[in-house]
Sequence to fold (119 residues):
Amino acid sequence: MQAVLGSIIIYARDMQKTAIFYSKYFGFQTSGEVVEGLIELNSPGAGAQILIHQAAKSVKLGQVGVKLTFHVEDVEQFVQTSKEFGLEFGPIHQANGYKFTNAKDPDDNSISISSRSFR
Fold:
């Protein structure tokens, strides 16, 4: 039996702010409407869907148990374009035939962009 990753749930303090973040910087499409307690964001390509869920006050956000990595062909160009829109990434790292860099979303969750899948 095969299992396909279809969606990722992100717990957020401000659901709208988090939905706008992933829409603005990564091209996810959303109406921003809360339906059944979730804001649905659809990938611009064949990637997984993101669901934004309201975090309870007791939930500790920003842990490094999960990191979302977005595949981009040109890391430098993506960093430059993101910077123009207000998203700052850290230093670009050179790995074994690919590059990557890290940032945080509005809830301090770790995100990364990487050209690894294009090497």
Notes: The two ends are 29 Å apart (CA to CA).
